[in-house]
Structure formats: structure tokens, C-alpha cells
Specification:
By secondary structure, this protein is of the alpha+beta class. The chain is 61% helix and 13% strand. It has ten helices and six strands, in the order H-E-H-H-H-E-E-H-H-H-E-H-H-E-E-H. The strands form two sheets. A four-stranded antiparallel beta sheet has the order 2-3-5-6, covered by helices on one side. The chain has a two-stranded parallel ribbon with strand order 1-4. Helix 9 runs antiparallel to helix 10. It is elongated, with a radius of gyration of 37 Å.
């Protein structure tokens, strides 16, 4: 009996020590991203590459309290942001499940109370027990699952950040378009009144014989085209307000209290802070998400490799049984005579499905290679997006200067 206990102790000790010894599969290393050292317009004094943009960039860029209030409302009520937050919670629980798989996988408490009659005799049967089954993490398969779940959680956090940043940008852009459309609508309505006067003047000149009736028709054409343009602007304005309402998680109505009275278009500084290209890797949520999903899939490759090896496990039970048919009664349920226990060790090896298991390893590796290319593509696309935005921002500043000059000359022409 002593030798058996010692042997069983050695088996249990080996199962407990083994998980820290072996870890099959590739150990993930972050791949080097394809990066340029500088932006194309890095010598432009309006481009600040030393200081990255502030997380609350809209406050410094626009200094508009209405916009600040709208973004705060979107943070509280936006449904896409809530959905992204719930995906983070799901990933966190999946990680907790993966961690729990390291411990006994089956833990069952059983109990039975039975009364039966046989051969004109009534007897009672009582049983109480506890069963446990545990698969030892010999090859690191459960640790690979934890590694994968941790990376997936970090990816979901990056996705949440991406939804958050996109929400800020969409609210700010929609708000600016609303203010811009308000200003265009005011100008269009003023033009309608001016063109009505022009039609009246032209009509009077026709009646006095100073001009042709064709001029009245042309003035009428211009007037009604402008009236049609007012309707287009009113449609666009309402559609923008509906878009903003959805971003705020509200039905498309009742934004008047938040938007307040019509205000001028907020002014924007001609300088922009983007940081260095290397900062992009740390700051862009889509890049972080792609990299973390790559790390998660790397762990899945390791998990698939562990399926090629045998699984070692331990099982045990402890309990007590009392049966009046065996001259026992309920009072004997927890006595030494009715006590029982068992412990066993074993392994399983899916040797007949080796082809399928190896194909699964190749499949998981192919997924990993695909995500690697997707990660590189994401980095390249992010750099292209920033370069496009920088070019558009600087060229729009030059365009604005040209429009101002044209406006000044148009005012002089109107005065003359």
C-alpha cells in the first residue's frame, strides 16, 4: 500500500511540474512594420512632427463649447461605442474561461436518495460523492489558449479606441458641415431676395422700353435656380442633423437645444501636429488591433501543434454510500465503513487522425500568414492616409488664400 501511495504521489507531482517545462509552437515576435523615417512634407513649418496630436484635439482646434457638449453626449449615448465596449467585455470573459481551463475541467458533486421495495421489503439507498477530472497542461495547450485570449482582449480594446476616435471625428465633421451649410443657406436666401429685386428692376425697365423681355426671362431663370438651391441646402442640413442625432444615439429630432442658435463656422489653426511615422504604430488603433490579432493567431498555431501529442490527465472521486439492503442505515452514511475513494491517471492520443491534425496546423499557419500580410497592409494604408490628409490640409490652406483673394476682387467688382 505504501509503494502504491508513493507511486501515485510521483504521478501527481510529475503532472503538476510538467506544465512549466514544455511550450510547443512558435513564440510570437512582433514583425517589423514597413515605415518611412519622415513624412513627405516634414520640412514644412506648419507640420509639427515633434508633438503628436492631443487626445482631445477638437478642444484646441475649434474651441467651440457646443462641439464639446456634442462629443460628451456622443460618449455617453453612442450605440456603436457601447457595442464595442460590450465586445471588450466578451473578450475579457473569454480570457477568464481560458485561464479556468488550466484547473480541473470537471468538478461534480453528486447526491442520491432512493427508496425502493423488492420481495415485500422496503429499503433505502443514499449516496453522496465528489468527482474531479483534470487534464495536465504538459505541452502548453492551455497556456497557448490564454496567450491567444489575452491578445484578442487587447485587440478588442484597440477596436474600442478605433470606434472612439472615429466617433470624435464624425461628430466634429458633421457639426462643421452643419455650421457650413447654415452659412451657405443664409447666403442663398440673401441671394434670393437680391435676385427678386433684380427681377423687379428688369421688369420695370422692360415696361419703359429700356431693355428686352429676354433679360426678364434670364433674371427669372437665375432666381428660380437659386430658390431650388435653397431647397437642396435645406435637405442637406436636415440630413446632417439626422446623421448627428444617430451619432449621439438619439432619434433624428430634438437637436435644437444642443445646437443652439446659428453660429459662424469655427476657425482652425493652419498648423497640424502629427508626430513621427514611428509614433503612428503606437497610436493608430487599427494598427494595434491588426498586430494583436496576429499575436492571437500565432498562439492558435501553437495550440494546433499540441493536438499532435498525447493528452495526460488525472481523475478522482470521493464519496460515501449507505444501503439498508446491505444492513446499513442513513446514520452510517458518513462512517468509515461506507467511505470510498478512487484516483486514476491516463492519457489519450488521437493517432488515427494525424493527417487531419497536421492539416489543421497548416490551416492555422495560413491564417497567421494572411494576418501578417493584413498587418503590413494596414501599416502602409495608415501612412498613406496620413500623407493624403497632410497634403489635403496644406493645399486647402493655399486654396483658402486664393478664395479670399477672389472674394476681395468680387467685392470690389460689386461696389463698382
Amino acid at each position: 500500500m505504501g509503494r502504491r501511495v508513493r507511486a501515485l504521489t510521483l504521478v501527481v507531482a510529475a503532472a503538476l511540474i510538467a506544465p512549466g517545462c514544455t511550450m510547443l509552437g512558435p513564440d510570437y515576435e512582433e514583425p517589423p512594420p514597413p515605415l518611412e523615417p519622415d513624412w513627405l512634407a516634414y520640412e514644412d513649418p506648419r507640420l509639427d512632427t515633434a508633438t503628436p496630436a492631443s487626445p482631445e484635439w477638437w478642444k484646441g482646434a475649434f474651441a467651440d463649447p457646443v462641439l464639446d457638449q456634442l462629443i460628451e453626449a456622443a460618449l455617453e449615448e453612442n450605440l456603436s461605442l457601447r457595442s464595442a465596449g460590450l465586445r471588450v467585455l466578451q473578450a475579457r470573459q473569454q480570457l477568464a474561461i481560458a485561464i479556468g481551463n488550466q484547473y480541473p475541467q470537471q468538478q461534480t458533486v453528486t447526491g442520491t436518495a432512493e427508496k425502493f421495495r423488492e420481495n415485500d421489503r422496503t429499503d433505502e439507498f443514499y449516496d453522496f460523492g465528489f468527482n474531479v477530472t483534470w487534464e495536465a497542461d504538459v505541452w502548453g495547450r492551455f497556456r497557448r489558449q490564454i496567450e491567444s485570449a489575452e491578445a484578442s482582449l487587447e485587440a478588442s480594446l484597440a477596436d474600442y479606441d478605433g470606434v472612439l476616435i472615429t466617433l470624435f471625428a464624425d461628430v466634429a465633421q458633421t457639426y462643421l458641415l452643419i455650421r457650413t451649410t447654415d452659412a451657405r443657406l443664409a447666403v442663398a436666401k440673401d441671394n434670393v431676395e437680391l435676385q427678386r429685386e433684380s427681377v423687379d428692376i428688369t421688369t420695370a425697365k422692360v415696361e419703359t422700353g429700356d431693355t428686352r423681355s429676354l433679360d426678364v426671362d434670364q433674371a427669372q431663370t437665375l432666381l428660380y435656380n437659386t430658390i431650388a438651391g435653397v431647397s437642396d441646402l435645406e435637405i442637406s442640413l436636415q440630413q446632417l442633423k439626422n446623421t448627428l442625432a444617430v451619432l449621439l444615439g438619439r432619434p433624428p429630432q430634438g437637436l435644437s437645444a444642443l445646437l443652439g442658435e446659428t453660429k459662424p463656422i469655427p476657425a482652425v489653426s493652419p498648423a497640424v501636429a502629427v508626430g513621427m511615422p514611428q509614433d503612428l504604430i503606437r497610436r493608430r488603433p487599427d494598427i494595434r488591433s491588426a498586430e494583436r490579432r496576429l499575436a492571437s493567431q500565432s498562439a492558435q498555431v501553437g495550440f494546433a501543434i499540441t493536438e499532435l501529442y498525447p493528452h495526460f490527465g488525472l481523475s478522482g472521486s470521493i464519496g460515501t454510500t449507505a444501503n439498508t439492503a446491505m444492513n446499513e442505515d442513513a446514520d452510517d452514511l458518513f462512517s468509515d465503513d461506507t467511505f470510498r475513494w478512487s484516483i486514476a491517471g491516463g492519457f489519450s492520443w488521437d493517432v488515427l487522425n494525424y493527417g487531419r491534425l497536421r492539416s489543421n496546423v497548416r490551416l492555422q499557419d495560413a491564417f497567421f500568414q494572411q494576418l501578417l500580410e493584413d498587418y503590413r497592409q494596414t501599416v502602409l494604408q495608415a501612412q498613406a492616409d496620413v500623407e493624403n490628409s497632410i497634403v489635403a490640409f496644406f493645399r486647402s490652406q493655399e486654396q483658402l488664400d486664393a478664395y479670399r483673394s477672389a472674394s476681395n476682387f468680387a467685392e470690389r467688382s460689386a461696389d463698382i
